[in-house]
């Protein structure tokens, strides 16, 4: 479970997030939706500790990680799939996944990872940089999963990915939720994707949450309006 209270994040004097409060329980997928520049990446970077928070508290299963470095947050169960994937282009697929395994002390890549991503097994000796965008996205998710996270953060995982592959990514996230005791938080602009994966949808606007719905109650037209203004 992730609990965030009174979170404040700034770039120098510019306050991008002033007072965010939310809780995401285990086995829930939360989608945070918003237009470009509304604060999704800033929020995720502050949760993983790349950006320091200027105030507030972040807890994982009751443990306060607010003052932890990124690597300590990973040790405490936060995993991050950044926007743009950021895989290592010159390492092989296998080596890319192995970079996530130091934390979990795994000796070899578990079978369940390759079962989720068969294409990565096939391509395990290829350089990460030679994979397609969709395959790189799978690789970034696999690298995050081998840390055995309690909370998996994915920043705009569908960005630059073709529609048929977007469906595959949605299926993979749903499979992960089924197989693991995990909290998934995904930032997105593609409503069809969030409707396929999220239990709850929140809209962020200028660093504030302005709308929240359980997936079954979502008024798609209203959300589309928020995303297009
Ligand atoms: N390094 C930075 N220095 C100053 N301001 C920044 C910096 N990075 C982002 N911002 C500002 O913070 C605000 C939120 O940006 P952020 O990248 O979090 O938005 P986003 O919702 O993730 O957008 P996108 O979908 O384009 O990634 C924007 O106004 C942006 O200009």
UniProtKB/TrEMBL annotation:
<dbReference type="InterPro" id="IPR003593">
    <property type="entry name" value="AAA+_ATPase"/>
</dbReference>
<dbReference type="Pfam" id="PF00005">
    <property type="entry name" value="ABC_tran"/>
</dbReference>
<dbReference type="GO" id="GO:0016887">
    <property type="term" value="F:ATP hydrolysis activity"/>
</dbReference>
<dbReference type="InterPro" id="IPR027417">
    <property type="entry name" value="P-loop_NTPase"/>
</dbReference>
<keyword id="KW-0067">ATP-binding</keyword>
<keyword id="KW-0813">Transport</keyword>
<keyword id="KW-0029">Amino-acid transport</keyword>
<dbReference type="GO" id="GO:0015807">
    <property type="term" value="P:L-amino acid transport"/>
</dbReference>
<feature type="domain" description="ABC transporter">
    <location>
        <begin position="2"/>
        <end position="227"/>
    </location>
</feature>
<keyword id="KW-0547">Nucleotide-binding</keyword>
<dbReference type="GO" id="GO:0005524">
    <property type="term" value="F:ATP binding"/>
</dbReference>
<dbReference type="InterPro" id="IPR052156">
    <property type="entry name" value="BCAA_Transport_ATP-bd_LivF"/>
</dbReference>
<protein>
    <submittedName>
        <fullName>Branched-chain amino acid ABC transporter, ATP-binding protein</fullName>
    </submittedName>
</protein>
<comment type="similarity">
    <text>Belongs to the ABC transporter superfamily.</text>
</comment>
<dbReference type="InterPro" id="IPR003439">
    <property type="entry name" value="ABC_transporter-like_ATP-bd"/>
</dbReference>
<dbReference type="GO" id="GO:0015658">
    <property type="term" value="F:branched-chain amino acid transmembrane transporter activity"/>
</dbReference>
<dbReference type="InterPro" id="IPR017780">
    <property type="entry name" value="ABC_transptr_urea_ATP-bd_UrtE"/>
</dbReference>
